[in-house]
Amino acid sequence: MINIAIDGPAGAGKSTISRRAAAALGYIYIDTGALYRTIGLVALRAKTELTDADAIAALLTDALTVELRFVGGEQHMFLNGEDVSDAIRTPEASLAASAVSAVPAVRAYLFDLQKKMAQENNCIMDGRDIGTVVLPDAQVKIFLTASPEARAKRRYDELCGKGMDVKYDGVLADMIQRDYNDSHRAIAPLKPAQDAVLLDTSDNTLEESVALVIETIKSHL
After folding, report:
1. 194 exposure class (CB count in 10 Å sphere: 0-12, 13-18, 19+)
2. Which among 103, 6, 117, 124 has a CA at the least distance from the CA of 60?
3. What's residue 68's pLDDT?
């Protein structure tokens, strides 16, 4: 199987770019951030303190079902049978995802699911530690980034487009906080794999970024 690992900070456009590149190449797209967002949503709904690793680990019971399904060719996340694909995209779920991703029990809970999907499919998988931890043998590794301001503007536009009442300054502050959390956590911190190709999309349009990623993948296979 051909596995492509795309890592990078929040708001770098990994999901949209990876999804379009996968469609163009005929691969499936696996958004691992959605898995962590779903566990973050579990913690929020349970009103669990996000700094309490033991309490978060206690939520991972046999009664909990987290599923990634493809509906009409699009990835959807299901929590105990409920489609939570929209619910996990709020700023609160984003910060909760960053918090729970630092919990070893959560990473172990989701690790096997990610590996299994990669072993069974030609895929583009994006996240924070795909090239360094989940798929260290991926044929192509890309670290996709952009300035915090560019990433915040994209996320702000995305949330406003969904009718959410958000402020740019708040989105930027959340982005900077998540960058810090993700890069300073003890378990699998956000960083480029040694053999990753670094792509900065700060000044690119979406179409330019997608074309750049596809070109990079093709040139390394």
Report:
1. exposed
2. 103
3. 87
- Closest Cα to residue 11, out of 185, 188, 153? 153
Long-range contacts of 114-117 (CB under 8 A, 24+ apart): 114/30, 114/32, 114/35, 117/28, 117/30, 117/68
Question: Which tokens is 193 given?
Answer: 């794999």
Q: Is 120 exposed, middle or buried (0-12, 13-18, 19+ CB in 10 A)?
A: exposed
- pTM equals 0.79
In which residue are the tokens 């996340």 written? 77
36 neighbors 129 (Cβ within 8 angstroms): no
Read off the tokens for 19: 């999804």
Span between the terminal Cα atoms of the chain, in Å: 12
The answer to whether 9 and 198 have CB atoms below 8 angstroms apart is: no
pLDDT digit string, tens, across residues 23-59: 999 998 988 889 999 999 999 999 999 999 999 999 9
Strands (E), the chain: 3-7, 28-31, 66-71, 74-79, 82-83, 123-127, 140-145, 197-200
Q: For residues 115 and 121, is the Cβ–Cβ distance under 8 A?
A: no
- Averaged pLDDT, 111-139: 91
- 3-state SS, residue 205: coil
